[in-house]
Specification:
The complex is a heterodimer of chains A (about 140) and B (about 220).
Chain A lengths: L1 H24 L12 H6 L5 E2 L2 E2 H19 L2 H4 L3 H28 L4 H27 L2
Chain B lengths: L1 H23 L22 E3 L6 E7 L4 H19 L4 E7 L8 H13 L3 H10 L3 H4 L4 H10 L4 H10 L3 H13 L7 E4 L2 E2 L7 H12 L4
Parallel strand pairs in B: 2-3
Antiparallel strand pairs in B: 1-3, 2-4, 4-5
Helix pairs in contact in B: 2-4, 2-9, 3-4, 3-6, 3-7
The chains are: A mainly alpha (about 140), B alpha+beta (about 220).
Chain lengths: ~140, ~220
């Protein structure tokens, strides 16, 4: 239960970071609090769109799904089951792979570092670590 | 479990409040920002080069993104500096006049103001005009400007804080409005001892001729 609670809180934090970047992308927020200027460079680059959608919106949807699955997994009927943990581990793995790809683009193609993207990378990495730990523990217990 | 939902709810409220604050925060003079700020009332007269006792004052209204301004700054201005400013005959005053058609003009002007805060306005001015390719690409120049800030020896932490705060956006707008009030409708526009220079070209010889006529040397 603890790991799902931790993932829920981390997903909520990630959701707000992604929402912040997405609101900037659609013009609802005038400027990013970034300091280096790298956030604007990344957000206005051609890589800021993936499969026709802003990358930040992928983040919003991704973290939203993670939060939804986690909250569902905290309901009494799912609490003792292994399914939500497996789904969370799979989603977190997808998220961390996507984040690795985005960070590769930022560093080697765009040549800019966005602090908020780094924050999101840290959050998804923590979610992945927690999810994998939970999956490993439940697997060992054989639940 | 109940405590967890309380914590989650509080976190959601805090995040929502933070996002609302960010959305309502006055925009910084960010790249390409189209929002025109209120003019500052600090009475800043512009950056000045030359002697206070020079008999002639030239006021230049310029836009950092304007190609003609860049050409003047890189081709004619070095001679003007050498022959008229360094010799104590002319005092040069720079005023911002960002044209609405130029996406990054205000941002560039703000970068120069932030350099001015550290006593490097003219160095940044020269960098912005000498490396003018940023004005042709249409791409976000913030990284390039930061590199220029590094090149001219600025404290980058102070520069970043200054750019983020947009503290000189109002000063730039005040300068623009001053230019509007004086009838400036293009850049660069020059006023020599208060009178607009109407010459078709702005060669250093034109300035020298006008200064000579004012100071009586040409007689």
């Amino acid at each position: 239960m603890r790991h799902r609670q931790a993932i829920a809180l981390l997903s909520l934090a990630g959701l707000f970071v992604a929402l912040y970047l997405w609101l900037y992308k659609i013009g609802m927020i005038g400027s990013l609090t970034c300091g280096t200027g790298g956030c604007e460079v990344v957000q206005t680059s051609r890589y800021a769109v993936f499969l026709g959608l802003p990358v930040a919106l992928h983040g919003v949807l991704g973290y939203g799904v993670l939060l939804g699955v986690t909250l569902a997994g905290l309901q009494p009927r799912w609490l003792g089951r292994r399914g939500p943990t497996l789904v969370l581990a799979a989603l977190a793995t997808l998220g961390i792979l996507f984040t690795a790809y985005l960070n590769y683009l930022a560093v080697f193609r765009i040549h800019a570092v966005c602090r908020w993207c780094v924050a999101s990378a840290v959050i998804i990495t923590l979610i992945w670590l927690v999810a994998m730990h939970a999956w490993w523990k439940e697997r060992a217990v054989g639940r | 479990m109940k405590r967890f939902y309380v914590v989650l709810g509080l976190a959601a409220l805090a995040g929502g409040a933070w996002l609302t604050y960010q959305a309502r925060r006055p925009p910084a003079a960010g790249p390409g920002g189209a929002v025109v700020p209120l003019p500052a009332t600090d009475g800043f007269p512009g950056y000045i080069m030359g002697s206070d006792s020079a008999p002639v004052e030239v006021v230049e209204y310029a836009d950092f993104e304007c190609p003609a301004c860049a050409q003047f700054a890189t081709v004619q201005m070095p001679t003007v500096r050498e022959q008229l400013i360094a010799t104590g005959r002319v005092r040069w005053r720079f005023r911002d006049f960002p044209l609405p058609s130029h996406s990054f003009a205000r941002y560039a002007a703000h970068a120069a103001q932030c350099a001015g805060e550290q006593g490097r306005f003219w160095d940044m001015h020269d960098q912005l005009f000498a490396n003018h390719s940023w004005a042709q690409t249409g791409r976000d120049p913030s990284r390039l400007f930061r590199d220029m800030a590094r090149t001219v020896g600025l404290d980058l932490d102070r520069y970043d804080a200054c750019m983020e705060s947009a503290r000189y956006a109002g000063r730039i707008e005040a300068s623009k409005q001053e230019g509007d009030a004086r009838g400036v409708n293009g850049t660069p526009t020059f006023f020599i001892n208060g009178r607009q220079l109407t010459a078709r070209s702005w060669g250093s010889d034109v300035f020298k001729g006008v200064v000579d006529s004012i100071t009586g040397r040409g007689r």
